[in-house]
Amino acid sequence: MTIQPSNEETLLEDGALQRAIFNSANFSSIATDAKGVIQIFNVGAEHMLGYRAGEVMNKITPADISDPQELVTRARALSTELGTVIAPGFEALVFKASRGIEDIYELTYIRKDGTRLPAVVSVTALRDVHNVIIGYLLIGTDNTARKQVEADQKKLDQRLRDQQFYVRSLIESNIDALTTTDPAGIITDVNKQMEELTGCTRDELIGSAFKSHFTDPVRAEAGIKLVLREKRVSNFELTASTRDGKQTVVSYNASTFYDRNRNLQGVFAAARDVTERKEVELELRLAKAVAESASQTKSDFLASMSHEIRTPLNAIIGIADILVKTPLSAEQRKFVDIFVRASDNLLDLINDILDLSKVEASQLDLEQTSFSLKDHLEKIMEMLVVRAHQKGLIFTSDISPDVAANLIGDPTRLRQVLLNLLNNAIKFTEFGKVTLHVAPEAGPTSPQMLRFTVTDTGIGISENKLGTIFERFTQADSSTTRRYGGSGLGLTISKRLVELMGGHIWVKSSEGDGSVFAFSIPLEISNLQSNSFSPKIDDQAVSLIHPLNILLVEDFPDNRTITLAYLQKLPYHIDIAENGLQAYEKFIEGHYDLVLMDRQMPVMDGLTATRAIRKWEKEHHLSATPIIALTAAALKGDREKCIAAGCTAYLTKPIKQDVLLRAIQEHTSKVIVLNTESITSTPSVLIRKFSDQIPIFLRNRHLDIATLRRALEQSDFDTIEFLGHGMRGSGGMFGFQTISNIGMELEEGALSADKASVSKSIDDLSGYLQGIHMPLAKI
């Protein structure tokens, strides 16, 4: 115990502690006399303030190196605090210490180089043995780091306040009513829109239950639970209610939110007023209902009109079909030809209107079937070649070798578009050519995007009409309609069909220079080999394995007459029923191989009769007898209704003879067998077969003469070769071998560009045709 005081005394006597303190570089030690003049200025003070001890000792006070403004401020504050006047100098720095009060304060020193040093200063009065103040000790530490931290914290606090203000601004500016709740569904914050939605203030809402502000609290609470379970909910509908009873339908989108440690904090929900949207939706539903009702009314009207128009039209076309095959005088044939053309035009118009209506009502379905494009185009060209040749036009088609032979698509709608375009081209072309070209589209976007191009040398279309050419009931001008006829629906339907098939159609033309109509459609390549052989039924060359027993069900006498006339040359046994009830009674009493069933009849309609027959067959364990529906209905769903009722097939009136016979052959086991020996054994049989076409064939050859002479004048040997080749192949088939021989001479003369030989052949043809004695009306 005696060692410690001895050590302390030694330490003090040696001055070791004093030297250690005053020589420390970590803080400044400044000692002054009683008047404040610096007596000691340690190493730390030199380092921190930039002065050498000799520059300040016995020369200045600490107040001389302090911020003057801070001295003034400190003096004023101390004067107020202690109730006495304190001068803003050294006295302000040591006044508290002189009164024995502990004093630690912040002070800014001014370094020798003029820079500022924030410091924390501790002041102690130095006293002698009599307790008299002999000086002061000011120990200072560098406060820069703490000041920087405080400054940074101040900036951070300001940024946080700014961020909070920004977030609050976002929340308040949102058009939706925003709400946050804790996991229990108690509201923790809202924006102004939520106040307006509920009629409550923010203070009233915070702390209240979310569910209490809606007309269906159970559903509102379930919504909060759903968010907690699913983490997110969209378009959750609720009805908010204010205190005065105002209700607003809102759609909530909500999600859970978490703190930085991923601890669940609650639910954030945004509600949007959808009252107006709900009203619009209601209006749209009502409008849709009205539109659907109107569409149904339109469909019903079309179905009714289709049946009412097609029924008498079936009689007209059927009678014309029969009459044209009977011996007629020249005048009678002319009259028959007129009403054949008129009835065909009327049927085309009806079909156009129905097709357009079905396309616009999205009631037209496309089929996807394999077909041979070459065979398909050949049939189309056959349908139009006579008409083209009647006008003296060159009518050709070609398929690029890059086009696949067999394709998958809707051949029926493709044929409809091509017939429309080719018919128009022939109609509006007086001289020259009509050509069809098929090639792959450049840069195909499908396995086989094909471009079909119809080019003519006709009247063309003026530039100002090109933009409306595909609109309904539109032709180039009113004179076009008067001169060429037509409804103006063909191009509209073609455009809609092409677009329905996934393609597009366009036209290039100028008035007087012809037109180019083109369309591109996607068609897939088929691996199946199409069967191009489709035998035609010749009523003069058929035999039967066994006669067919047919029940014809038809209430309209003219239609019965036509159907019987179609079948009269065939060894069929035909019974008649005038309504569905008679048909059912006859069927269960007799035995029939086939039923031809009209659809709309009095007493019992065809579909009801078909269902009754199918039910009777099932009850008696009999196999189904083929029933072919013959109907004037041609709208979407009619075929499906017939098949659903039990019909085997479906034919739309007016029905051509070959179509009916082909359907009978397809759907009965007792098929028609073509007697090929009788067809090919003698040329006379061929002549009889094509006898109805002979007048047209000769008339076309008369027209060819004028075309050949114009081609010879222009040295157009391609046209001469084309026409000669055609005559060479067709003359003998019609029984005119001389025309075949002249055709061969024309072809050879054109190949050698021998004008003299061609001229002689044209004269030979003209003379030969003039020598054929046939009534002019037929030619």
Structural overview:
The protein is of the alpha+beta class. A hairpin with a 5-residue loop joins strand 16 and strand 17. Helix 14 packs antiparallel against helix 16 (about 490-500).
Helices and strands, with pairings:
Elements: H1 3-14, H2 16-22, E1 28-33, E2 38-41, H3 43-49, H4 53-56, H5 68-82, H6 90-98, E3 103-110, E4 116-127, E5 133-142, H7 144-173, E6 177-181, E7 187-190, H8 192-198, H9 202-205, H10 217-230, E8 232-241, E9 247-258, E10 264-273, H11 275-323, H12 330-360, E11 369-372, H13 373-390, E12 394-399, E13 406-409, H14 411-427, E14 433-440, E15 449-456, H15 478-484, H16 490-500, E16 504-509, E17 515-522, E18 524-525, E19 542-544, E20 549-553, H17 557-567, E21 573-577, H18 580-589, E22 594-598, H19 606-619, E23 627-631, H20 638-645, E24 649-652, H21 657-667, E25 672-674, H22 676-680, H23 683-689, H24 694-713, H25 717-730, H26 737-751, H27 755-770
Parallel strand pairs: 12-14, 20-21, 20-22, 22-23, 23-24
Antiparallel strand pairs: 1-2, 1-5, 3-4, 4-5, 6-7, 6-10, 8-9, 9-10, 11-13, 13-18, 14-15, 15-17, 16-17, 19-25
